[in-house]
Amino acid sequence: MHHTLTIRHQHSAQQTDAFVVQRQSDGKQTDPCTLPDPRTIAIPRTDKHTLQDDLHWYLSDYLKTANASTKHHRAESLVTALTHWGEACFKALFSGRARDWQHDFSLALGGTA
Q1: Which of the 8 DSSP states describes residue 10?
Q2: What angle do CA 83, 107, 96 make, to 5 degrees?
Q3: Residue 34: which residues within 8 A CB-CB, separation 6 or more?
Q4: CA 81/CA 89 separation, integer angstroms
Q5: CA 52 → CA 21, 26, 57, 81, 100, distances in Å?
Q6: Fewer CB within 10 Å: N-end or C-end of the chain?
Q7: Least confident stretch, 28-37, 50-59, 64-73, 89-98
Q8: What Cα–Cα distance (Å) separates residue 43 from each residue in 47, 51, 78, 102?
């Protein structure tokens, strides 16, 4: 059996970005869900920065000059926020039916419950 789940972006008429999880073996998919918007997630210990702002900063500037300790603290805060955002996205995507599919696939591939 083919064990593949695909996350697909869906643009709705309401201009809200939504995502579905699709099981490839039969084409069934979850109801659309929205994910936390990285433009609205505040970064702790920064002056009004959002996850999107600091991710841009990190990829554009920080990696070029990663030796200043204040910048290092900002990068650590970004990593923490990015981890929490990723966990929130995973929970939103893999709830209900998609959670069951992921669990079933994990068991079929030799994982544990």
Answers
A1: E
A2: 60
A3: 16, 17, 18, 19, 92
A4: 12
A5: 24, 36, 9, 10, 31
A6: C
A7: 64-73
A8: 8, 6, 6, 30
pTM of structure = 0.80
What is the SS3 assignment for 39-108?
CCCECCCCCCCEHHHHHHHHHHCHHHCCCCHHHHHHHHHHHHHHHHHHHHHHHHHCCCHHHHHHHHHHHH
Q: Are strands 5-11 and 17-23 parallel, antiparallel or unpaired?
A: antiparallel
Query: Residue 9's closest CA among 25, 27, 21?
Result: 21
